[in-house]
Amino acid sequence: MKRRIITIVTLFSILLVLWGGTGISSNASGFVDVPSGAFYYDAVNWAVANNITQGTDSTHFKPNSPCIRSQIVTFIWKAYGSPEPDTEVNPFVDIQNTDYYYKAVLWAVENDITSGMDATHFKPNKPCTRAQVVTFLWNAAGKPEPLSSYNSFSDVSINAMYFKAVRWAGEQDITYGTNATHFSPSNTCSRGQIVTFIYRAVSDQIHHHDWVLSQESYTCSQGGNREYYCTTCGETKTEVIPKGHKWATKTEKIEAVPGHYTTKYIDGYRCDICGFFNTSINVFK
Predict the structure, then answer these.
(1) Which of 133, 141, 179, 222 has the most CB atoms lying inside 10 A of its own CB?
(2) φ, ψ at 6 (rounded to 5°)
């Protein structure tokens, strides 16, 4: 009887190995806090396999922990192959040549990916926000122009320094909003989020769409759609445009003054869709 129990236990142990362990994690990297169904699962395995980052210990990745500026520039630097910086001049008093992120910071600064918080401080331990991360990735990609200036996020001004980066990141399926109308640009980026953003932005395993606008049909009073197709794979996507004016940046309208050989300049905002000019609002406070 005792031998039979041992045999059953042994068989059960073998089956656990074949099924991927105890069910806590089937992660190839061995992290118990990275379940196979997590949105960052593939990204974490890719990042570890390519030596972009490791776990906080042998069994934990801590995907929900905040990511700091020094970590993020190091991850991006490694994702681009850990290139040697051209300069050896370090303007930052809070970074030493013995720091693990020293070369990454110099490379990021000389390639206009990011800069210091001021002329002499990089603030390597400062948490990085969602807006900063997409801007770093957009800068690293060469600052490509987004397809459109349509903005569905009420917390992302068209005048914000990260506006184009947010648009580009959404169009390239790198990241979207935290909900349909908010990007939450000031939210701190977590380790799970940042490796996912980098994975989607630079990994050869990810197909990067080359979207082209194929059709658009919408009005300010009714809304409508924009249709896009990818020139490399043929995939299509639809962008739903809700009704309402889409105000462009502040501009001037020139009008002739009746009875005079002169003109006057009027400050206001022009709608990108219908061209209506409004002088009574301040939509970009």
Answers:
(1) 133
(2) -60, -40
Question: Which one, of 25, 24, 33, 79, lies nearest residue 55 by Cα?
Answer: 33
Collapsing DSSP to helix, strand or coil, 247 comes out as strand
- 128: which DSSP letter? P
Burial of 166 (0-12, 13-18, 19+ CB in 10 A): buried
In whole angstroms, give the CA distance from residue 56 to residue 281: 50
Q: In a 3-state reduction of DSSP, which class is residue 214?
A: strand
Q: What is the DSSP letter of 160?
A: S
Give the model confidence (pLDDT) of 234-281 as tens digits: 777 777 776 766 666 555 555 554 555 445 555 677 776 676 777 655
DSSP label of 147: S
In this structure, what are the phi and psi dihedrals at residue 101, rounded to the nearest 5 degrees?
Answer: -100, 10
Taking the chain, what is the end-to-end CA distance rounded to the nearest angstrom?
79
Is residue 62 exposed (0-12), middle (13-18) or buried (19+ Cβ within 10 Å)?
Answer: middle
Angular region, 123: left φ>0, alpha ψ -120 to 50, beta rest: left
Measuring CA to CA, which residue among 229, 203, 242, 211 is closest to residue 40?
203
Of the candidates 134, 131, 137, 136, the residue with the CA atom closest to the CA atom of residue 186: 131
> What residues does 252 pair with on adjacent strands?
267
The letter for the amino acid at 234 is: G
CA atoms within 13 A on the CB side of 68: 8
Joined together, the tokens standing for residue 174 give 């790198």
Contact 126, 105 (CB under 8 A): no
